[in-house]
Amino acid sequence: MMDVLYFAWVRERIGVPKERIETAPATVMDLVNTLRAREDRYEAAFSDLSALRVAVDQELSDFDASLTGAREVAFFPPMTGG
Amino acid sequence: MDIRVQEAAFDLGTEANGFVARQSRMGAVVTFTGIVRDLDDTKLRAMQIEHYPGMTQKALEKIAQEARDRWNLGDVLIIHRYGKLTPDEVIMMVATAARHRADAFQAAEFLMDFLKSRAPFWKKEVTEAGADWVAARDADEDALTRW
């Protein structure tokens, strides 16, 4: 069980800021594939992974990262702080 | 280190003076201020800044700590706002204190380069034509390679 968070246009495209998933994907990529298979809005959000960044447990990570023990995964576009 | 993520406006002069007053034996303080800039071709009504509450503070602390590890600094201040801002409003500031100016200048630039693309903030520009997310620029990502 983990929380999946979305920010900026990813949140808008998927339509929710946060959701809980009950499955246990092994990697970020497995999670992405699980979500993409759900509905078109997920497919639309994840169609170009080069336009996305991912954080696992609030640390920047990458799509190959393991999700063993992870409690929170967040997807968002490249950051625009400052 | 003094790192604040807040919705409220802050007074630049008060913060800069307070930061200077808290230093001892520091010969240089550098401050940088980011301001909401109006657009060239269309009127900006507002800038909406979203962030990742659980991660933002930690990410900023990590960037500030990295700066302290690299340069001989007295202290670091970062204030970054989120929420709805209008043109000419102050978005954020950084201040660095060091015994000599080179450390303070370089650390401030380093902080800004990493804040741009490693702190979880996203900006949305609201104009008469609609609202659009600000895209990250390749130049901002490239800027990290010089450090």
Number of helices of chain B: 4
Spell the H/E element sequence of chain A.
EHEHHEEE
Specify the structural class of chain A.
alpha+beta
Q: What does the average pLDDT of chain B come to?
A: 96
Question: Fraction of residues of chain B in helices?
Answer: 25-40%
Rg result of chain B: 16 Å
Largest sheet: number of strands, sense, barrel closure of chain A: 5 strands, mixed
Q: Can you count the beta strands of chain B?
A: 8
Distance between the termini of chain B: 21 Å
Shape of chain B: globular
Quaternary structure state of the chains depicted: heterodimer
Name the helix and strand elements of chain B from N-terminus to C-terminus, one letter apiece. Answer: EHEEHEEEHEEH
Main pleated sheet of chain B:
4 strands, mixed
Residue share in helix of chain A:
25-40%
Rg calc of chain A: 12 Å
Biggest chain contact: A-B, 17 and 26 residues
Strand order of the largest sheet of chain B: 1-4-6-2
The CATH H-level superfamily of chain B is Molybdopterin biosynthesis MoaE subunit
Structural class of chain B: alpha+beta
- Could you tell me the CATH topology label of chain B: Aldehyde Oxidoreductase, domain 3
